[in-house]
Fold Pseudouridine synthase.
Amino acid sequence: MLSRVRTIADLQFGTGIGCRVFPDTCRFITSRRGGVRQVLLDGKRLATLRAHDGRLTLGLAGGKRLYSALPGPSGRVVLRDDVTSFIAAGKNLFSRHVVRADLDIHAGDEVMVVDGEGRFIAIGEAMLSGDEMLAFDTGMAVSIRHGIQKEE
């Protein structure tokens, strides 16, 4: 199970990321048929494996581990400082508040939201590509799943 989750993480986030985000001590919650549902570390949810597309959605603990493992600016969206508290509380990030974004981001990707100094603020799903986040003045850029002030 661990090798499968690590392989998915490598495909989704980049080669070598799976081993750094998912250590050997991970535990798994499985479905009745034995498939991986959630990955846990020290009682905290690192990720959930989505059944409909086989991709990982990260919990707050998983987002923090990805932030440490993946060098910037990969997979990161930088927000304006005046909205940091809202995003940290779990509110969605709109494109007018995006300062910079990794241009390799595609809609549907898991992304890390960081402040102007590069500190981790939230994890969520990109609703727009990196280019679109910068070009658009309206619309949701990132659907925030977990902010640092909103513990699981």
